């Protein structure tokens, strides 16, 4: 009689460790479904073309990945994480507990018997110590069913291993911050094209994290679309309550424009190159004038004495114009 393979859910970040964790578990004859959780702070742009993303991961690494948007509950978590923040606005331990908890809820949907992660003991000082790894297992409700294939031999056996669902002898004992073991294992699996270590979580960025924390302090209700806009371009708070965001270069101009919401004004100079800007909450006429002056100020410089420029304001299908001079740096 045919027996269905044991199933596992993997927390998948797209990084090398999560790729290897999936492939190692798959090599044991276990069916792995990788779950990539997305929030405004990581992976959100993938939602625009999930089909292409899934196909790319499958082609490159042979891994079946699904996207799950957990933005709303994550924004609530960020307001008051039980284990506090790191150096900046990063709730690393609570973040991991939350994501593992969300994976546990998905186990019946994907017919999974346990969860795997790409964590390695000692790789991260706050969230990947032996004691904190144990806290994640306990507080996520995953006692006995959370396996870390890359460092399992440095930890006590889980119930999954003791019950024989996973062959512990074929799991590994990686530790520390080095990557030589991972690179060697990737070569064994024939994986050569994999992401290099990134710059880390947005919430650990000293500048962006302060901007996001300030927003939380000033707003009782936190909206996904506003949190996404916080992470783009130059930002200005205008006297009448307007919020102006403008790109610094062509790539940021495109991103800013993509982040516009119904009711936002898009500002762009008509006569010469410059930033694309979004004015949110921009009903105040004086704010619109200031916003136009800022767009001219950060546009391409001209030598002529009259440096004013025509700025087009687009709101939905409606367009208007403001002739503005560059705003003085003292006012900025």
How would you portray this structure in words?
- With about 325 residues, the protein is α/β, with parallel strands linked by helices.
- Helix content is about 35%, strand content about 15%.
- The protein has eleven helices and eleven strands.
- The strands form two sheets. The protein has a six-stranded antiparallel beta sheet.
- Helix 4 packs across helix 5.
Can you give the mean pLDDT?
93
Shape: elongated
Strand portion, in percent? 15-25%
User: Which strand order do you get reading across the main beta sheet?
Assistant: 6-7-9-8-10-11
Output the radius of gyration: 24 Å
Distance between the termini: 75 Å
Helix content: 25-40%
The low-pLDDT segments are none
Number of strands: 11
Please identify the structural class as seen in this structure: alpha/beta
User: What order do the helices and strands follow?
Assistant: EHEHEHHEHEHHHHEEHEEHEE
For the biggest sheet, the summary is: 6 strands, antiparallel
Kindly list the characteristics that best describe this protein.
five-stranded parallel beta sheet, alpha/beta, 11 strands, 332 residues, single chain
